[in-house]
Amino acid sequence: MSHLTAAGTVRALGVGAPGYAHPLLAPVEWAELARPGTPVHWAVLNVSDGPGSRPDPHCLEAAGRLRHAGVRVLGHLDLAHGSRPFGELVSQAQRFVDWYRVGGFYLDRCPTDRTDLPGVRRTTATLSALLGGDSHLVLGQGSHPHPGYAEAADQLVTFSGAWADYRWSQVAEWTADHPEGKFAHFVHGVPRTHLDEALRIARWQGAGTIFFTDRPGGTGAAGGLVPSGGPGRPGGLGGPGGLGGPGGRNSAFHSLPGYWDEIVSRIGPGVSE
């Protein structure tokens, strides 16, 4: 069963995977996302700074397993804070749909200012039309943007960063005008002993999708792994592209947290909110 409704809203607190290394390098990570009963809302697919130049058979297989498990696969599109040409983004999106049958998109490094809002709205409207009625769009901003962005996508990543900042973070007042689950939070460096506290903060601030990890912040491929593109070249799922926003392009988010099973047990099916 999908953890998202037909309208794209989340049913209950769950996990959003920012994107792991290539399936050949991170088979355990991708297998865990497809494990029956795992509360995963979506997983980001980043083949090579986008869909790559040709279909990758290993990524095709991984995406197929996730779809079969009811996990929505989101194609990774880098907005580069509003500097990417519109036609280039649409071309990449079309390849994601044609090759990997994605059910939505993660718009990495999405702008936050009001002046950029019309351009982002144009992009998200085009992507929604490309996907048809059943689509899911996530703006990977990493901080609270202008309130108008909330109407431009299904979810917004309003926090991406370290636990030391998250535990004292304040939610923007305008978020109260939106349903629970509209927002996603990604936090690294969360100690196992503070996992329950982190989950309480997420629920209090209206986040429906989370990715918490005990991995420390850092850059580069997770665990020193070289992405599929080879040394010095982009590649893999997640790879060096990763998640946008403060702390987002961070290797901490590219592998499973040490307490993955504990997260699953705390927010999995049948767990009371």
Describe the protein's topology.
Blueprint: E1 14-17, H1 27-33, E2 40-45, H2 57-68, E3 72-78, H3 86-100, E4 104-108, H4 117-131, E5 136-140, E6 155-162, H5 163-166, E7 183-188, H6 195-204, E8 207-212, H7 260-267
Keywords:
273 residues, alpha/beta, 8-stranded parallel beta barrel, 7 helices, Phage tail protein, Spherulin4
Could you please describe the fold and organization of this structure?
The chain has about 270 residues and is α/β, with parallel strands linked by helices. The chain contains seven helices and eight strands, in the order βαβαβαβαββαβαβα. The chain has helices at about 25-35, 55-70, 85-100, 115-130, 165, 195-205, 260-265, and strands at about 15, 40-45, 70-80, 105-110, 135-140, 155-160, 185-190, 205-210. An eight-stranded parallel barrel has the order 1-2-3-4-5-6-7-8, surrounded by five helices. The longest helix is centred in the middle third of the chain and has 15 residues, at about 85-100. About 50% of the residues are buried.
Q: Could you give a short description of this structure?
A:
Helices cover about 25% and strands about 15% of the residues. With about 270 residues, it is of the alpha/beta class. The chain has an eight-stranded parallel β-barrel with strand order 1-2-3-4-5-6-7-8, surrounded by five helices.
